[in-house]
Request: fold
Amino acid sequence: MNSDIRQKISRMGKAAVADPPQSTTSADPTSNPSAPTPAAPSPNDIDPKVLVALLQLEGQIRSAQSVKELCFVLANETRRLLTFRQAFLVSVNPARQLACRVEAVSSVAVLDRQAPMIQWIEQVLGHFWKNQILEAPCPLNHSRVPKEWQCDWKRFAFPHVVWCPLIWGNTDMLGGIWMARELPWQDGEIQLIRRVAETAAHAWQALQRTNKKIGRLNLVFQKRWLWAGAAALAVALCLPVRLSTLAPVEVVAQAPAVV
Reply:
């Protein structure tokens, strides 16, 4: 009897060693509310290369010495940050006959204002300006222009165009950026363009203020030189000047007498 009990106990021990008890806790974290969930990727994560390119571009924008140089930097150096086929830098001035004027074109050193593409871009942007379409960043396409210009869209522009105005603070629109390519623009790329446009608008306004101050100083100096010149001329006119001349003379006696 005792031997039978011992055999049963030994069999139960071997079974316990061979088959360990299974855990009742599921490996799925969703089945356990107290289990920590993995962190979702943040939408604000930025590629370090993109961040470096953005900082370098902003540094070049702030280093520009004139509006012309600023427009050239925006049209060409922005390629380091964004992929596009065309970029046009446009100044906006409602007082002009053409409110929108192209100032720089990507990959073009000398701008030809008589080129058909430049004239077409200025006309199209002028149409958008009159219809108050250019006041905020927006995509542009051929369906938003008159029919007589739609055929030229395929000739001069790419299918997907994005416009971003250059506005700083409460000031009027200084200009804008027209970028075009074959592929649609993503929201993240448009946000980068807006960031670059804000930096460019601030630099543009600062350059305009500097140019106005220099122009005023030059005008003051010119006026001072004019007043100084007028005073010197007045003093010179008051000085006595002795005049002399040479002429043929014949000496004749008043009462001649013959001796």
Remarks:
- The CA atoms of residues 29 and 37 lie 7 Å apart.
- Residues 48-210 form a domain with the Beta-Lactamase fold (CATH 3.30.450.40).
